Amino acid sequence: MSFAVLKEDQTMSNRAILIAYCTSLFEWWLYNHSSQTYQTLLIPRSDGSAVPVSAASVEEASNRSLRLLHIVQHFFTHHMIDVFSCDFSSSGLEQAFVESKLKSFFSKKTEDGPRFDTYVLYYSGHVYPNGNWALTGEVSLTLETIMQWWSKANHDSGSRFIIIQDINSKGSWMKQVRQISDHFVALQSASVSKLTDPETGVKSGVGDFTMEWVGFNCSKDNNASWKEQGRKIKAIYSVSKAWADFQFQMPTDDDIEQHWQHNFPACTHPIIKLLQIPTSMDLCSVLSGCLSCFRRWKMKWLPPAILDTGHGFKLVRS
């Protein structure tokens, strides 16, 4: 696990703050054969069954998972995100542990009190055919449950919630995100071609999306074409109905006045009163409702292939 916080230039004109939580999961099940004295490593199939894998396959998957963690850490570093912790899990995640971690993450606030503008959750691990996360004890974590935790912590603060998943998405969560109307939510994932080994059940494509996506968002020389024909990994994203209405937190009148008093001579303090124009006199506010409807319509029917989050990285779709 890793917690990360990005604090951009906290001037009076830009106070955008991002906080992220990342989990990359490498799960193998130990099967103790009743008639033998040794243990065999198993990997689950999508149908719930499990098959033994060789030591070489285990080592390869382990190294791949570690590389994936390093790539995500590089993404955090590139975008000035401070990683607080990073744990490598090889025994699965318990529901109580995930619930505690996510609730704590969702309740994080800035040092001066307000909530962060954007919360990012990254997940790479096992999922069920319906897209729900596969936890230990055959327990599944649904998007609905995550959103309940998010809603309780977020209230009406106006923060965004971005989920990035490196899994072979089946589209179920994508449809659910599009139905959310009271929160700013986005889901970035991928659709991987059927590259499953018929003997081991290992999906070799999982993890490749993160490498491509991070490369696209961290390198100016990366010319990846997400629209090219024959792509084995296709990027997909989905946003909630209200996504287009999101606005970064702006300084309040009190913030502006306090900043002015601390940085400008006392003789100029009366000027700030003249600059604080009441919102009711803003002629543009009359058109805000129409503009909101247009933005929502455009995002629903004409979503961009590349969606800028405003934090230096983009969501993409093939």
Question: What does the model show?
Answer:
- With 318 residues, this protein is an alpha+beta fold.
- It has helices at 55-78, 95-106, 143-154, 172-179, 208-218, 253-263, 269-275, 288-301, and strands at residues 2-7, 17-24, 29-32, 39-44, 50-52, 81-83, 118-124, 133-134, 140-141, 160-168, 184-192, 233-239, 306-308, 314-316.
- The chain is globular, with a radius of gyration of 23 Å.
- Residues 1-16 and 26-40 have low confidence and may be disordered.
- This is Transmembrane protein 168.
- Keywords: Glycoprotein, Membrane, Nucleus, Transmembrane, Transmembrane helix.
- It is found in: Nucleus membrane.
Name the features.
Rossmann fold, disordered N terminus, single chain, 23% strand, 318 residues, alpha+beta, seven-stranded mixed β-sheet, 2 domains, three-stranded antiparallel β-sheet
